[in-house]
Amino acid sequence: MRTRITELLQIEVPILQGGMAWVAEHHLAAAVSEAGGLGIIGAANAPAEWVRSEIQKARDLTDRPVGVNVMLLSPYAEEVAKVLAEEKVPVITTGAGNPGKYMEMWKQAGSKVIPVVASVALARMMERGGADAVVAEGAESGGHIGASTTMTLVPQVVDAVKIPVIAAGGIGDGRGIAAAFMLGAEGVQMGTRFVVAKESICHANYKERIIKAKDIDSAVTGRTHGHPIRQLRNQMTKEYLQKEQEGVPFEELEQLTVGSLRNAVLEGDVQHGTVMAGQIAGLVKKEQSCQEMIEEMMQEAAALMQGV
Known about the structure:
By secondary structure, the chain is of the alpha/beta class. It has helices at about 5-10, 25-35, 50-60, 75-85, 100-110, 120-130, 150-160, 175-180, 190-195, 205-210, 235-245, 250-255, 260-265, 290-305, and strands at about 15, 40, 65-70, 90-95, 110-115, 135, 145, 165-170, 185-190, 220, 230. The radius of gyration is 18 Å and the shape is globular. The relative contact order is 0.14. The model has no long low-confidence stretch (mean pLDDT about 95).
């Protein structure tokens, strides 16, 4: 399945792995790239030297392209941006802001820049700013979310820009890939499915929580203060949503979640930690290697698309 995305990124299949904080480190990223997709290291709020170390460790595991996701709100964003240019990272995805001020530096280093967007206006702005492609991410995705669904956002972004569009949010199998392509996307980005990969460092409790998730297990906290985050329901979300409903100040709500994602991912606290996952969690039923996942999804997608 060759598209402008596979050509642009020099990958075999049009699948990108999301740059999930604490989850998307060098083991997972290298495994996805080895399987023919694009693995992405999530810089999140990590310091620049940690990011450099992860890039180098990934290169020890694969000679295929590995990208890095930069969260532009991070206090280390400026330093991380410089490290990515120094390391000549082939693909940079960005979230939570406008990467405009780093664009020239990254381009000079030979990087392809792919911002994650949740609106048509932002997609157009990114295209004007020199982005090579955009990830149109719908509200079905895990973590920080926008307002529009993937089904409505992707075709509108496709119509609005000339650069390739990658669909994200609610995609976890071959049916989702085929649907994204029908909407005009030329690639997909997935997070939740890869969380349960054998190569993922996520705690067994976190993986099991996703595998056992039902369709109604998704919750969104933070809507009232403009920072909505999708995760799986647990004791923490119950308490958070109750306090949010009572009008508890944002600062107090934040105290409930300090360190909670790390606690869930690495320590396995799936009751009081933040178990970030998309609505697709109800479809994820087994732990597989990245190779097995990608082969299975691509076969399913190809069969469906040939029948169209």
